[in-house]
Amino acid sequence: MRTYLDIAAVRIQRYLARTPTLRGRRTASAALVDMRSVAAEALAGTGAWLNAEAGEIDGVVSLELDSPDDVDRVSAVVLRALRRRLPGAEFQVVWATDLDYVTAYAEQMRPTILSGRSRVDLPTVAELPLAALCRLCGIDPAVTTATLDDAERNVCADCVERESWRSLSASRTGERRLASRLNREPVNGGFEALAGMGRRETRIAVIHADGNRIGAFFRQLANIPAERLRAPENAHLTRDKLALELSKATFEALAEATMSVRGIPGRSLPLILHVLGGDDVLVSVPADHAWQFARALLAGFNERMSRLVRGLDLEVEISAPTMSAAMVFARHDESFTTIVALAESALARGKRAGAGRSSWLCFHDLTTEGRHDEGSVVPLHELKQRQDELTELARAPRSFRENLALALADGGPEAALAHSRRVGVTAGTPFLPRRGSDPAREAEHTPAGMDGDSPTRLGLDTALRIARWW
Ligand SMILES: [Zn+2]
């Protein structure tokens, strides 16, 4: 039996978003990546070592220990070191003793996390309850001063750490790995520069993508006897390496999606990558490249995962995990905290709505819809099926699409059809209910009815929203 101890930074997106500066977010991303090396240094002489079966997941330190008796001592040592590097982060600690990591994770660690029984390590609360709040993040009490933009400011421990970290270029953040893989440079200059790469130069989209049913997948695999996982020709795909394979599939899909963004001059990456961890991606792109990028990311991940499952050559049927994403379109100067919170809740809403199995995209356009809108959910397979029709609609003059949306809102599908006929543009017609069809079946799908196999039909209202940035 082996003992595993995972220490993970939780609510990562929110943690990254707490500083208003891109630099502060990038240094925090780097700190999440550095967690492994910080832990490795702290481990000397503790009888614990980095777990080679876990993938390189930003924000997670996975350790293996000599004995379960060492859990408390080792986690105290590691947490103390991590706390110095990420003062404002929230850490979660789980451990288990089992045959291998996949089994330990699926059978014990994940259930512990889901049931809220994991240990949590919170930032130290200031001893002076009336201390002024940090001038940068406004979240934690200011504990010291720092010179920022040539002015002396009161800041919290976390912001000081972010601002004082200078060796960013040495960190192997996901963004740096991606840049060096594609022979490009990270975006220099933040959201404004990023938005400037698109046709509509002030808009960006933030995409939060995440694997579906990863836990169930690991659990199913954990229940298969180890010898049945090893087809001789696929000896490299042992269960020990699955967590690594998952991270690799995400990275490869991300690289492929990045290459699919065309028409960006220069050597800059067409995105800012905030988080890359296991199957979790948080990334910003110019708004008019968002659909292309997100579709390529999801399709690339799905394809790699189903190839992986086929490669296992199992005698039992296991469905490969898929990826879904939430996209929030916004002005480049919109608060990142707001965007991230919206993307997070859109992703959670889609998953709650039972859209777990198939791959889908939930999108929310802050530039035209209110913050309290729910956003629209559309299955990936439908975007693929209707690709040509959507392209046709997106090519129609903007004024036509705007008037069509007005006609639809005012007089329903009949009015939209009448408008199309009057101006002689048919690009919207494929999204209107067919004559003589059952209106209930033709009605716009709801997330609850979403399933890879069920017939859904993209309605004109959603199609017009998609076409805006298609
Ligand atoms: Zn602060």
UniProtKB/TrEMBL annotation:
PROSITE patterns: GGDEF. The keyword Nucleotide-binding applies. The keyword Nucleotide-binding applies. Gene3D superfamilies: 3.30.70.270. Residues 202-365 form the GGDEF domain. Keywords: Antiviral defense, Nucleotide-binding. Residues 427-457 are annotated as: Disordered. Pfam families: Cas10-Cmr2_palm2. It comes from the Bacteria. Residues 435-445 have a biased composition (Basic and acidic residues). This is GGDEF domain-containing protein.
